[in-house]
Amino acid sequence: MGKIVSKVELAEIVGRDERTLSRWQNDGMPVIEFGSGRGNENQYDTQAVLQWLIQQAALNGKKESTRDRLDRIRGDREELALAKELDEVVVATDMVERFEAVITAAKVELLNTYPDELAATLSARYGIEVDDQLIRDPIETILRRLSAYDEDDAEPAWDPDEQDDQGGSEEDGD
């Protein structure tokens, strides 16, 4: 415990006026005893006050008052609202919905339209009948792999260079 002093004495020790000490007191500066009524001064422990001041200095002004915090939050909200209005940012749930719609459309295209069109194009160009299932199978395999993707996994559960042997594929040379 340090020396017990009055507000006037503490102001002299720390080199600040009494109003500053009152403000610091409202911000949490320790007080040993509150004076009751006029003429009875508060009492301060110099060691506790100096420790508090050192702690405040260590925070380097990062502690903000309730009012400052409220003002900052309101400002942040206004800034975010303006950014949304200017289409500079989008809400994450909106992006998820859009992304899911794009993925669904791509899956429909890849599974339903693409194999048939590619098979028809290859058949017409090379004069042979191409089974659209030969095109559809690898696409389904890739889509299955993608659906098993977990964003928390560091690496995919499957090897992208490994062939998927679902139907007992034939090897060359047999």
TrEMBL record:
Biased segments, Acidic residues type: 149-174
Q: Where is this region: Disordered?
A: 148-174
The source's superkingdom equals: Bacteria
Cross-referenced Pfam families: Phage_Nu1
Give the species this sequence originates from: Pseudomonas alkylphenolica
Which SUPFAM superfamilies does UniProt cross-reference here? Answer: Putative DNA-binding domain
Name of the protein in its database record = DNA packaging protein
Q: Species lineage, top-down?
A: Bacteria, Pseudomonadati, Pseudomonadota, Gammaproteobacteria, Pseudomonadales
